[in-house]
Write a structure and sequence with these properties.
Layout lengths: L7 H9 L3 E7 L9 E12 L3 E12 L4 E13 L4 E6 L8 E8 L4 E4 L3 E3 L2 E9 L3 E9 L4 E9 L3
Antiparallel strand pairs: 1-2, 1-11, 2-3, 3-4, 4-5, 5-6, 6-7, 7-9, 8-9, 9-10, 10-11
Length: 158
């Protein structure tokens, strides 16, 4: 079902209900080894009224059939007064976040990155679309050797 208007509070509520993810990755003809799909579980930990962490664990299967277990921890930070959502990768630990991007509303149900995240020569941007029970997060990665897209679907239990 299409949602016509999502507030920051709506986004918080939808993200806090997430318990699983599915994703697919395509390299758009460039061989960077990302082509494949994955599924996993998401454990959400709330930290007050403005932070939540996603601990993601699952399995990714490449188009070649290669299977890998994965785990990631992300922190979503809500800047209520600014009207933005910050996404950080807790790659090292909770006290050393890697800033990825700030998302702002661009239409009724979509938030997009204000500016790209740079990782070496690669540039990452993202958009999150919120529907009733699902958060669609689409990453775009461009660089000298990359032209990839990762499409994540976060969902609440049925």
């Amino acid at each position: 079902m299409e949602v016509t208007h999502v507030t920051l509070r709506d986004a918080w509520d939808r993200l806090s209900a997430v318990r699983s993810l599915r994703f697919s990755a395509t390299s758009n003809g460039r061989s960077c080894g990302w082509d494949g799909s994955g599924t996993g579980a998401v454990e959400v930990t709330m930290a007050g009224n403005s932070d939540m962490t996603f601990t993601e664990r699952g399995t990714w299967v490449g188009d070649s059939g290669k299977q890998l277990d994965f785990s990631n921890i992300y922190r979503w930070r809500f800047e209520w007064d600014a009207g933005t959502i910050r996404l950080e990768h807790l790659r090292y630990d909770l006290d050393t976040p890697v800033f990825l991007l700030d998302l702002v509303p661009t239409d009724g149900s979509t938030f997009e990155s204000i500016s790209p995240h740079r990782c070496g020569a690669d540039i990452y941007t993202a958009a999150a679309k919120f529907t009733d029970d699902i958060v669609h997060l689409r990453w775009y990665i461009k660089g000298p050797k990359k032209d990839a897209e990762i499409y994540c679907i976060y969902s609440a239990p049925d």
